[in-house]
Amino acid sequence: MKGYRWYDVVVAFFVATLIVSNIIAAKLVHIAGMVLPAAVILFPITYILGDVLTEVYGYARARRAIWTGFAANALAVIAIAVGGWLPPAPFWNLGVYPGPEQAQQAYDALLGFTPRLLAASFTAYLVGEFLNAWVLAKLKVRTRGRYLWLRTIGSTIVGQGADAAVFISLAFWGVLPAGALGQAILSQWGFKVAYEALATPLTYWVVNALKRAEGVDVYDWRTDFRPWAFRS
Questions:
Q1: How many whole angstroms separate alpha carbon 78 and alpha carbon 67?
Q2: pTM, full prediction
Q3: I need a labelling partner for 216 at 20 to 30 A (CA). Which of 5, 92, 115, 229 fits?
Q4: Given this model, what pLDDT does residue 231 score?
């Protein structure tokens, strides 16, 4: 694979954004009448970076980034779980709790993951990111590289819609009533699509700057689009 100067940098930001988003997702926030996980301030950036990777370097390299993010997030989850299982020091209290038992409960509450939430998160990530990259790559070929705004927003509508639907359904089916599930899906979907639309000028700037710097503008005419295929 041809080496590129900025590819690894973009992937590093993609992975870091994904991991941090999953950590801060434990907090729920109230924005414009919607209850959303705090990760909404950062997680949509993974889709913007996914768009940049697919648009500049092509689907095959975006696929590598998606799997890299998946592996890094899995490592973070394992490390957090092991840290939670290790016995706390007798004097550990995070500076605010009476003792280690309460500090351990706070650690588990904020950083712990149930198997159901983990399965929902990982599944939604893979479905959403691969759909996002696939739609953008296909639209680029269909439009012959025109209308970048259509490709970025269109791919986000599909990818983020799938991400929200899969995660909310798998994580909260049977816990929330059907109406609340639908409202949660639409709220997250609408917020993230709006986020992407507002970031379109920045996306244009980054894409054009990278194309000039790297001297590349990949079109996926004959790419193998299977998520598990690691050769273009």
A1: 16
A2: 0.91
A3: 229
A4: 62
- Say if residue 213's pLDDT is above 80: yes
Range of the domain at 120: 7-214
User: Rounded CA gap, 161 and 132, in Å?
Assistant: 10
Calpha distance 16→85 (Å, rounded): 24
Supply the DSSP string of the chain, one letter for each residue: ----TTHHHHHHHHHHHHHHHHHHTTSEEEETTEEEEGGGGTTHHHHHHHHHHHHHH-HHHHHHHHHHHHHHHHHHHHHHHHHHHSPPPTT--TTTSSSHHHHHHHHHHHH---HHHHHHHHHHHHHHHHHHHHHHHHHHHHHTT--HHHHHHHHHHHHHHHHHHHHHHHHHBTTB-HHHHHHHHHHHHHHHHHHHHHTHHHHHHHHHHHHHHHT-----SS----TT----
Name which of 118-122, 132-136, 138-142, 177-181 the model is least confident about: 177-181
- What is the CATH classification number for the domain harbouring 174? 1.10.1760
Question: Does residue 104 have a pLDDT over 90?
Answer: yes
Largest CA distance in the chain: 64
